[in-house]
Amino acid sequence: MIKLDRRKFLLGSAATLAAGSSASALPASKLAQRHQGYGAAATLWDLQADPRLGEAISTYCTQVVPVLELKWPMLRPDAHTFAFERADAIYDFAQKNDLTMRGHTLAWYHDIPDWTKQIKDSKAVERAYVDHISTVVSYYKDKLTSWDVVNEPIPDNPRDVKDRRDTFWTQHLGSSWIPLAFRTAAAADPYVKLAINEYDIESAKDSFIAKRAAYRNLIMELLDQGVPLHAVGLQSHLHAELEIDTHGLAEFVTEIRSWGLEVYVTELDVNDEKLTGSPTERDAIVAKRVNDLLTAIWTSGPVRSILSWGISDRYSWINGYVKRPDKQPNRPLPLDGEFKPKPLMDVISKFTKDV
Ligand code: 9MR
């Protein structure tokens, strides 16, 4: 098992500070109110369509992550083009509002453009993969705090701890697709923190426990191979009807940290489709789940990066994907559809003081 290289760790911290240290045009009183280390995902479309969204992020957050703009389909209309304009516009928003920005995501089974899938020769697939990661990470060198390098590598209901998701990349590159992504990213920017990211590992259901065990096994293998991995993302797309596995999760996080890795909460939200009751009752359960999640993680120390996948219920992917039986909107995020804070924002506030 390798430990994180200390020099790299210190340089990484310096780059992180530098990325957010430009003189701010915002009043000190506004900056002081922000929840330190809290961030939200947003699309450029929503930021441009509704000024309340940018205002909310700038009021509560210290960081932002693009939902779509750094994924292959938006960056890569074809094999020869890198279209950075939309991601750059979110980066400008971050700069103007004194926010840091994370990158999401470089290597994923999903969102692979058709032109890429049409490549038949494995060597050509490898060239396109390395070219993409290298070009995108180099372009944002010294600008981002961290990258979700590999996203969602574990299948749902894994057969055993060695089970990995079968992806287009695996079909052409075998299991090397994961180490290759990290090594390529590290060569392009030696200071940015490199993360792996996964969902459905937080609750006590058997399939979640199995997924967590496979995730742990993969992380351990990567470290054993000397892969430059710095952080482990817990997406935390929680399901309101499921209890958090507080004991198992605390144990997992403690072990990950003992290996020299950081732990980030990367995509927090709570799907309440299976909850009955009034909005007030549902909001209380949603807040409790997140309180349980963060308490479990905190048993071995604070989390310096907590991002929710959106900030207002008005702009949540969940409302586009699932419908509650009572036809009421889902309430997964810290602000309601009118940008009013809900109990979940109090939980985030509690866990982002003095980090
Ligand atoms: O919320 C995102 C949705 O708008 C996109 O259509 C989808 C495909 O790009 O990705 C969603 O975000 C996902 C994230 O990238 C990875 N973890 C799960 C997120 C929710 O599905």
From TrEMBL:
SMART domains from the UniProt entry: Glyco_10 (SM00633)
Record's keyword terms, sorted: Carbohydrate metabolism, Glycosidase, Hydrolase, Polysaccharide degradation, Signal, Xylan degradation
Protein origin, superkingdom: Bacteria
Domain GH10 as annotated: residue spans: 41-351
Reactions the enzyme catalyzes: Endohydrolysis of (1->4)-beta-D-xylosidic linkages in xylans
Pfam families: Glyco_hydro_10 (PF00331)
Database matches in InterPro entries: GH, GH10, GH10_AS, GH10_dom, TAT_signal
Protein name in UniProt: Beta-xylanase
